Amino acid sequence: MLNEIYNECKTKMQASIEHMQRDFKTLRTGKVTTSVLDNVKIDYYGTPTPLDQIGSVIAVDATTIVVNPWEKNLLSDVENAISKGNVGATPNNDGNQIKLFFPAMTVEQRQDSVKQMKGMGENAKVSVRNDRKHSNDKIKKLEKDKEITADESKSAQDTIQKTTDKYATNIEQILKDKEAEILKV
């Protein structure tokens, strides 16, 4: 019974970290990645479709992304979707493909990215603490229902706290590494 609670708690905490890392992909760092276009969708025969499913999306260097739709009649739709997506670059349509030239990041932009990243990290920490509370509530309910003793309850809550501390430390390390990556010129 307690092992199920421990495993569920670890799974949820790991999911919080993975969610935070997915959110990081939307941040701009010194090197542009194709993930800045992940939220851009075009209307493809009535269905909102991600760009990477209607053509190739490639980062050709540190500041340039090329979008090459498989159907050339989609070029203007892709260009409009990118413009509306507010990704930080103006699309350049040359008739065959769309190029996005991202300017080098300024110090202020890097600091803004760090600020956003820290907010994402704080959200992950809050989620981990909520997972701890949820697990502790389950343990207290087991104790109240006389399924476990008070000593077992205390020990289980200590185990949950150690798990929480481990994941919080992990989040801090990830944030520290990501901050260094963003601020690196």
Question: Top keywords for this entry?
Answer:
185 residues, alpha+beta, Topoisomerase I, Chain A, domain 4, Gyrase A, domain 2, four-stranded antiparallel β-sheet, two-stranded antiparallel sheet, 57% helix, elongated
Task: Walk me through the structure.
Helix 1 (2-24) packs antiparallel against helix 3 (107-144). The strands form two sheets. A four-stranded antiparallel sheet has the order 3-4-6-5, covered by helices on one side. A two-stranded antiparallel ribbon has the order 1-2. It is 57% helix and 15% strand. It has 185 residues and is α+β, with helices and mostly antiparallel strands. The protein has four helices and six strands. The N and C termini lie far apart (51 Å). It folds into two domains: 2-26 and 106-183, Ribosome-recycling factor (Topoisomerase I, Chain A, domain 4); 34-101, Gyrase A, domain 2 (2-Layer Sandwich), CATH 3.30.1360.
